[in-house]
Write a structure and sequence with these properties.
about 475 residues; alpha+beta; Ubiquitin-like (UB roll); Creatine Kinase, Chain A, domain 2; 3 domains; seven-stranded mixed sheet; six-stranded mixed sheet; 16 helices; about 35% helix; glutamine synthetase activity; Glutamine synthetase; Gln_synth/guanido_kin_cat_dom
Length: about 475
């Protein structure tokens, strides 16, 4: 049975702590038998950087029971490791506890002798930290479940590989975009990456060279939202580790080079109606993005879910395209989704509807959010997307007419006639929309809204006056 929204926010009591400690102690014995010396506990900060504390395997049981100390100041860290202060976070005072999710504990094939577990953050009294994005995502998932809905999600991971020393980016391969030459140039590297991901339980759907020199993309199987965000973290850290072992460096930044195509982290989402309970006869969930009478086969709820996301895309950019560098990528006619519109298989629309092949639409139909990138905290980005989609369902929102051309090819009068607006072209504009959005404020909470805005404005001030090349250099190795 799915957790209720309140249960998703339940504090740790002593009985729960004891059970976690016992499970983790048993897991630690199994890890020790595999010669694993330590477990890295990770969480993603407001700037989208994965932070960590690690414990020796022998201490893993204690860590699961009582947590590992971590300052709450990291909620206000900027991409250069400086910090700002908001009304709810910032400063040297206070402590949080990192508690590993034992269900996701994974030996890291790319880092022999190490294991990994995503962490949930609690206060010392066992209450959930209000800025814990993983908990926020669990709560949004539970809110949809309470209405009989579930979501399957997956992130596409794009990254650029450099063979340069120091801070410069030197493409590690130079073959044509999408060319087989790029596979040949780095075949050992890509093979080792796929082998490492398979060993960690990640199902890779496809991998291919991308447009920019040195750039690749990898897609994984969809899963529940929290699992999808966990997998995004695991995939990126595996890519990073395999790159280092090959003498390379991986950049997930929205813009590894100012004059090149950027890295996105597109989000795929499908809404599913949960199956009936045992009394009514168990049945499989049904994809609301297919089999209906709405646009291109969407059901009414599927259309409303998509419409809720489309309506709030300007505000959602504050968590999905959250860096100053994001707006070097988010430009028209670069397949980045720079206009607030949607379309069937339209890679210039911010929201692309994907049906899949004719005979697999019931399984494969989904939405792709193209305007998001890898500077985003994947937990926070998904939580905000689910909140927007849930609001669309509640309002029975309808989609506008789809767009079947590059919006940039339309003149201003035609764009206005069709109701198509350019998405924010600066981080400051996105933050203003985020702060003004009542649905996101209600779903995420005042502490999240204030802290996200403070961090975003801190990065804007940090990079004020910087050239595109300087912005790209500042963000290149941070995500």
């Amino acid at each position: 049975m799915a957790a209720t929204p309140d249960e998703a926010w339940r504090p740790l009591d002593r009985a729960t702590r004891d059970r976690l400690g016992e499970r983790a102690t048993a897991a630690a014995r199994a890890l020790a038998d595999q010669d694993i010396a330590a477990v890295a506990l990770t969480w993603v900060d407001t700037s989208g950087i994965t932070r960590t504390k690690a414990v020796p395997t022998a201490r893993f049981g204690h860590a699961a029971q009582w947590g590992v100390g971590m300052s709450p100041v990291f909620d206000t860290f900027l991409l250069d490791d400086s910090a700002v202060s908001g009304r709810f976070a910032g400063g040297p005072v206070g402590d949080l506890r990192l508690h590993p999710d034992l269900d996701r504990l994974t030996p890291l094939a790319a880092l022999p002798g190490w294991a990994w577990a995503p962490a949930d953050r609690y206060a010392q009294d066992g209450t959930v930290h209000p800025l814990d994005a993983r908990a926020l995502l669990r709560r949004e998932t539970a809110r949809l479940a309470a209405d009989g809905w579930s979501v399957r999600a997956a992130f596409e991971i794009e990254w650029a590989v450099s063979k340069g020393d120091g801070g410069a980016f030197v493409p590690a391969c130079t073959g044509p975009a999408y060319g087989m030459t790029r596979i040949s140039e780095l075949s050992d590297y890509l093979r080792d990456l796929l082998t490492a991901l398979a060993a960690t339980g990640v199902t890779v759907v496809q991998i291919h060279p991308e447009y920019a020199a040195g750039q690749y993309e990898l897609s994984v199987e969809p899963e529940d939202p929290v699992g999808a965000a966990d997998t995004a973290v695991l995939v990126c850290e595996t890519i990073r580790a395999v790159s280092f072992r090959h003498g390379l460096a991986a950049s997930f930044s929205p813009k590894a080079e100012a004059d090149s195509v950027g890295n996105g982290r597109h989000v795929h989402l499908s809404l599913w109606r949960d199956g009936a309970g045992p009394a009514a006869g168990a049945r499989e969930p049904v994809n609301a993005m297919s089999g209906g009478d709405g646009p291109f086969g969407m059901t009414a709820a599927g259309e409303s879910f998509a419409a809720g996301i489309l309506e709030r895309l300007p505000a959602l950019l504050a968590v999905g395209a959250p860096s100053v560098a994001s707006y070097l990528r988010l430009i028209p006619s670069h397949w980045a989704g720079a206009y607030a519109c949607w379309g069937l298989e339209n890679r210039e629309a911010a929201l692309r509807f994907v049906t899949g092949a004719d005979d697999e639409r019931a399984r494969a139909a989904n939405l792709e959010v193209k305007c998001f990138d890898a500077a985003a905290n994947p937990y926070l980005a998904l939580a905000a997307l689910l909140a927007a989609g849930r609001a669309g369902i509640a309002a029975e929102a309808a989609l506008p007419a789809p767009i079947d051309v590059d919006p940039a090819s339309l003149d201003p009068a035609e764009l206005a006639r069709r109701g198509i607006a350019r998405l924010p072209d600066s981080l400051g504009e996105a933050v203003a929309a985020f702060e003004a959005d009542p649905v996101l404020r209600d779903a995420l909470g005042e502490a999240v809204i204030d802290t996200v805005a403070a961090v975003r404005r801190g990065e804007i001030a940090l990079l004020d006056g910087a050239s595109p090349a300087e912005i790209a250099a500042a963000a290149r190795w941070r995500h």
